[in-house]
From TrEMBL:
Gene3D superfamilies: Endonuclease Chain A
Name of the protein this chain belongs to: Cardiolipin synthase
SMART domains assigned to the protein according to its UniProt record, in alphabetical order: PLDc (SM00155)
Domain of life (superkingdom): Bacteria
Family statement drawn from the similarity comment of this UniProt entry: Belongs to the phospholipase D family. Cardiolipin synthase subfamily.
Organism, as annotated: Coprobacter tertius
InterPro entries referenced in this protein's UniProt entry, alphabetically: Cardiolipin_synth_Firmi, Cardiolipin_synthase, CLS_N, PLD-like_dom, PLipase_D/transphosphatidylase
Assigned keywords, A-Z: Cell membrane, Lipid biosynthesis, Lipid metabolism, Membrane, Phospholipid biosynthesis, Phospholipid metabolism, Repeat, Transferase, Transmembrane, Transmembrane helix
């Protein structure tokens, strides 16, 4: 009798747990559907929840929640920043830019209040050695302030060199502020940053991940890599502070693209940093000292556009779509990961089918096998539309750049994947200048000499097992 009662209780517990579990799964699916996000992304989450329910619940709890309705900075704070920027909305009516470029500039302003800064000088770096030699020289010249923000700031040889310079400048009385991404620097010991703090440097992690807020923050990372020195010189691009960006990896070089800006557009970088600093510290850097008036240094017009999971629009994604849609002659793209949204994939196909010369360069070997397999699943439809695909062979291609029609080019932190468009905080410089576009075009063509071109006949005949794995991983690409 007692054994029967125990069995009944066990049966009741199992049934109750099953019912609770089933209700949890269904409720989560209802939440996913009710959020009215991209159908492809919603379907990906539903597939994960149905076929991998336990894993799916955990993944959705940590990675699936939306925060786009929140703000990083109040409207009042944003107005304070803009008041100190010495450039208003640029009148493009007298400009020599094409009508398409002028329209694209207006889009950037309406989406992001991204001002167009004329009169800049730009230096492009394609190796970490070039970039970090120049960065260290400029840091040593700082007399007022240094604002530095990186997704990864490693405590390796290069990281210690940069840290020691920052400590030296702080001791000289220079204001030094550092933002690092908490997930990007998970492996970095606390002592590395505490030594900076002890020297008088203000250091803040972006979205520090800890319990109980782990689920709310782990999926939303600050992927930006920018430096502002005295409000006159800035750096932006794809390179983090880590030895591999300087020395390469065991299987080849680390090919990346970064740039130095001298001129008024440094104010755009400072505005981006100020918003992130306010978000992490609640201190608004709106004083005029951080936004000095800078005389023109060159002939390049630049917009600094930011995007992230907070806010109404996916600013960089939409501006990319506009730039690609404007193309008449060619589109050359370098990206380490290619997991395009449906809209991006279609507009690239449309351009190629309209006989625009569309070229896509990816790494032959990646630092992420999962992302590479997902990327490979998108290559066949690109090839069928006439997109030329190249695999870079000397090492890992981490560059994130686009050049279009000898007029427009962009360099920044944004990959062509769901994560950059939907989850990460990103920043890109959008540049309008023929000479710079030609330089960027030549960089692409030089890299192309070290590539293997992928043909449709070769690609569709690769092993069936590879194609199946790629197709399965592709189902998860919106949530990777």
């Amino acid at each position: 009798m007692i054994l029967a009662s125990i069995q009944d209780i066990n049966d009741w517990l199992y049934t109750s747990l099953y019912v609770i579990y089933f209700i949890t799964i269904i409720s989560t699916i209802i939440v996913v559907i009710s959020e009215n996000r991209n159908p492809v992304k919603s379907i990906a989450w539903i597939v994960v929840l149905l076929f991998l329910p336990i894993v799916g619940i955990v993944f959705y709890f940590f990675f699936g929640q939306e925060y786009r309705r929140q703000r990083m900075i109040s409207r009042k704070g944003k107005r304070k920043l803009l008041r100190n920027i010495s450039y208003g909305e640029f009148d493009t009516s007298e400009s020599q830019l094409s009508d398409s470029a002028k329209q694209q500039i207006k889009l950037g302003f309406n989406l992001n209040q991204a001002l167009l800064y004329p009169g800049n000088k730009v230096t492009i770096y394609t190796t970490g050695k070039e970039k970090f030699i120049d960065l260290k020289k400029e840091l040593l010249k700082a007399s007022l302030f240094i604002h530095l923000q990186y997704y990864i700031f490693n405590d390796d040889v290069l990281g210690h060199e940069i840290r020691d310079i920052l400590i030296e400048k702080a001791k000289e009385g220079v204001e030094v502020r550092v933002i690092y991404d908490d997930v990007g620097c998970w492996r970095v010991k606390n002592k590395f940053f505490s030594e900076m703090i002890d020297a008088g440097i203000e250091v803040n992690p972006f979205f520090e991940v800890n319990f109980p807020q782990l689920a709310n923050k782990i999926n939303y990372r600050n992927h930006r890599k920018i430096v502002i020195i005295d409000g006159k010189v800035g750096f932006i691009g794809g390179m983090n502070i880590a030895d591999r960006y300087y020395n390469g990896v065991s299987w080849g070089i680390w090919r990346d693209t970064h740039m130095r800006i001298e001129g008024p557009a440094v104010q755009g970088l400072q505005s981006s940093f100020a918003v992130d600093w306010c978000f992490t510290s609640r201190e608004l850097l709106s004083e005029s000292i951080y936004f000095p008036s800078v005389a023109p240094q060159g002939k390049i017009d630049i917009q600094i556009i930011t995007s992230g999971p907070i806010g109404e629009w996916k600013e960089i994604s939409l501006t990319f779509l506009k730039a690609i849609g404007n193309a008449k002659q060619y589109i050359y793209i370098q990206t380490p990961y290619f997991l395009p949204t449906e809209s991006l994939m279609k507009i690239l196909q449309v351009a190629a089918l309209a006989k625009v010369d569309v070229r896509l360069m990816l790494p032959e070997k990646s630092d992420s096998p999962v992302l590479q397999r997902a990327s490979h699943s998108y290559i066949t439809p690109m090839l069928k539309a006439g997109v030329k695909v190249y695999f870079y062979q000397p090492g890992f291609l981490h560059a994130k750049s686009i050049v279009i029609d000898d007029e427009f080019s962009t360099i920044g932190s944004t990959n062509l994947d769901f994560r950059s468009f939907d989850h990460n905080f990103e920043v890109n410089a959008f540049m309008y200048n023929k000479e710079l576009a030609l330089d960027m075009k030549n960089i692409f063509l030089n890299d192309q000499k070290n590539c293997r071109r992928i043909t449709l006949k070769h690609w569709i005949n690769r092993p069936l097992q590879k194609r199946i794995v790629e197709s399965v991983v592709r189902l998860l690409s919106p949530v990777l």
